[in-house]
Amino acid sequence: xxxxxxxxxxxxxxxxxxxxxxxxxxxxxxxxxxxxxxxxxxxxxxxxxxxxxxxxxxxxxxxxxxxxxxxxxxxxxxxxxxxxxxxxxxxxxxxxxxxxxxxxxxxxxxxxxxxxxxxxxxxxxxxxxxxxxxxxxxxxxxxxxxxxxxxxxxxxxxxxxxxxxxxxxxxxxxxxxxxxxxxxxxxxxxxxxxxxxxxxxxxxxxxxxxxxxxxxxxxxxxxxxxxxxxxxxxxxxxxxxxxxxxxxxxxxxxxxxxxxxxxxxxxxxxxxxxxxxxxxxxxxxxxxxxxxxxxxxxxxxxxxxxxxxxxxxxxxxxxxxxxxxxxxxxxxxxxxxxxxxxxxxxxxxxxxxxxxxxxxxxxxxxxxxxxxxxxxxxxxxxxxxxxxxxxxxxxxxxxxxxxxxxxxxxxxxxxxxxxxxxxxxxxxxxxxxxxxxxxxxxxxxxxxxxxxxxxxxxxxxxxxxxxxxxxxxxxxxxxxxxxxxxxxxxxxxxxxxxxxxxxxxxxxxxxxxxxxxxxxxxxxxxxxxxxxxxxxxxxxxxxxxxxxxxxxxxxxxxxxxxxxxxxxxxxxxxxxxxxxxx
Length: 582
What we know:
Elements: E1 9-17, E2 22-26, E3 37-42, E4 45-50, H1 53-69, E5 74-81, E6 87-93, H2 102-114, E7 119-124, H3 134-137, H4 145-157, E8 161-166, H5 173-178, H6 197-202, H7 211-224, E9 232-234, H8 249-255, H9 257-274, E10 278-282, E11 301-305, H10 316-321, E12 326-329, H11 342-359, E13 363-368, H12 371-374, H13 382-393, H14 402-412, H15 421-431, H16 436-443, H17 468-489, H18 498-523, H19 534-555, H20 561-576
Parallel strand pairs: 2-4, 6-7, 6-13, 7-8, 9-10, 10-11, 11-12, 12-13
Antiparallel strand pairs: 1-5, 3-4, 3-5
């Protein structure tokens, strides 16, 4: 029997229960934690005990999973269960190219609830239909007020706290590019510069000493705050890469970047408090200045993110020693990948969950980003989402080892009775060596940060660091794994049939990227071995565009898919242009 998250205590009893009688009782369970419950299945029926409504709700989710596996008669058992973290969340990027349809967000909320998550955030820079600034969101198919209100209402029914999350310091690229170039920390007008994914990722930061910057942030908070019933508001304030690098360079040299950051952060936090909310913010910057942490208002909750397998950048110790309330924030490692890197994600999520408990973290917020156009699809990300839910509920369970978790999530979430699919997807993701980001660098305009990154022929130096033999090996592995995965998919019965096509698109994307990298290796004189003919690679890229768009539009608004098509089309032209690849 598979139960996700795995319960804390479960005792199997003899006999089965054919009765459909369910008795719900408000009563102490022997555990003081919120959301705790006891689920007893006896020959006479099912009894659920909990001290609060949430406990009854989560017990029912466990019972649903048991019923799915034993539709005729339930095995008798006694379950006593409670969560490790009171806040168990999922954080989804809806700003870097892909805006989900409302039905997709409602289905995502259902998925979160079924695995006992109680916190959901959608990351927004510009993809909300701000009333006063339509030029900021035009062309992105933003979320509307009505859509957020509908999602918020459904989340409340599912006992999920839908928390607003809006950039308020760094990651202000679209606002600065389209409307407020004068608020850019960098001392240059970027309003006429061509779009670049790298710049949207790395630039631009608000000029923290310009009074109009904090006025704009306050305006954003005032407009969106009433849409959410949550008492929390995430102002992000992460990755302020440009801070002190332009207009405020002299001041940064005099006072320090930490001082500039904290002074502006406190103004944003004050605006959130004035709007009647408790602020959350990413802790990557303040963690570099432990001596300044004490200046942050005590009610503000820091979000300690680290997406590495070895937790190389976690700031949990700084937060713990500062006696601050904080959440740990791992990631599903889907961004920039055609299939999520589950090797990294599994170690990152499970280790961070355990470390967070040792460090006194108050919550776990698992993240899914959409860097470089958001090529990663939702279906193959489900194992990472479920692992985050399981780790936030029962971080120490042996059932979360890769050997045990992958078969369970294959059966319960991916519809694969053989239990092999999650493991095969992990192998496929790990087989690839070609990078989508490097393909984008060739065809998108290059900002000043790209100086010295390219060779004389225009290829990214980092793109050619692997010998061609590495890509030949990756292609061979992917071919074998694709065949094995297709056999499993033919027998799969996922609740969402779109999952199988998203997996196929991911495999095709990985294959096409390896072929394109080999084409570049050939042009750069890095290999003399026979490579897939440019026409074949171009055909695969065209097929990738067609199939990716199809699954994209079923889950998402058109949003900024055209940017992905621009890169894929340029890659096709690159392969088929006369003289190329001969």
